[in-house]
Amino acid sequence: MAPPAGTTGAELSRRQRIYAFALVTSLFFTWGFAYGLLDVLNAHFQTVFGISKLQSTMLQLAYFGAYFVWAPFAGAFMSRIGYKKGVHIGLGLYSLGAVFFWPSAKFEKYGGFVGSTFVIGCGLATLEVAANSYISVLGSPKYAAARLNFSQGFQGIASFSGPLIAARWFFTGANATSLGTVQWVYLAVAGLGVALNILFFFAELPEITSATPTENISGQYESFWKQYRCLFGWVAQTAYVGAQVGVAAFAVNYFEDQGVGISAPRASDLFSFCQITFTVGRFVGVLLLNFIDPAFLLACYGGFCTLFCILVSQLPGYGGVASLFLLFFFESICYPCIFTLGTKNLGIHTKRGSGLIVMGVGGGAWYPSAQGALADKANTRRSYLVPMSGYIAMTIYAAGLVIDQATKDGFTMRNRSPQVDTHSPAEVSKCDSAEKQIAIDECLKSA
To answer: Average of pLDDT values for 62-81?
Structure first.
């Protein structure tokens, strides 16, 4: 099957861009809410099933492992069927996994919950490949990182509102030791997925392709495995997401173990405030990315993440608490910036590259286990040396991009607008493969 013909974001009207942006951004809230519920379920199942903390992390393994296993396939088939059908598949898997929570709760089977979480993870991985790459190419490449940070901000809102809602209304009192409310919560989640799927079916969602810089237009026809910016982006994303998940997974334990009298309920509140700090930082990043080069800003933020992670691992008392809040703030822009930088200038490889970068979310499946092992042998504070390694890898990637850009175009901290080729992919596809480069050159000369 040939990939669906599309247009570049620049060819859409302002009304079309705003409508498509708002519609796709709604998906970010969907998986943010699902991830927010995950930690609540983790603690809830420890009580209901009487399982250990290690056993309860099977939920995280299933959730993040689904990204590692499924995201490359999602990117591959989306290259053939397009963004809109990819969204339908993702929402379908998301709803299906949520529905499977009903029989798992009815028959009280923990393994059923783990399997259902894996199906939900596959659906969310598909949605991330579609939504992240769509937002990235929906408009000027100059503001791709700012657009994605803005959309991802709604994921941050859902990630802290989900656990607050669940903890207040669904998992308290008599419900704390039963699975009855879990059935209804995830039935509602399934209903949300079905509603969004129907909305997307009737919505006009233009098929968008990447506008490729003119100096790199021949490079987009090179082998995917020569797109080193994307390949190293996957390494950076794997390291970063693993670090981010590890930091969040042990935040409550960290607050309690700081020796300043922070109780478990207070520690949970502080963790919610950390997530709010993360979300605020993401919207601040939107403003900064309108003026500052994404690679340079990511390198700076990566350096600060490394610094504050070291301070978290070394400082006792409120000094460590403050450092953890600052760490959450500087984490804010990292994921969307790595994504947009890793998929930049990929041209015909954009969807496949998006699948590879989203596959990096699988880093969250094993980093918490490594951090937990160190926490058991030493203490929670020292365990934060594990995520530090992830921030270092991310910073090296960003610094490498800054050096590469400086070598080719000269160093600048300002966000630059690349000169892009905006010819329709349908026009290019008419050319015979042997004459493709000649046709492109002629098109550029006539522009």
So the answer is: 86
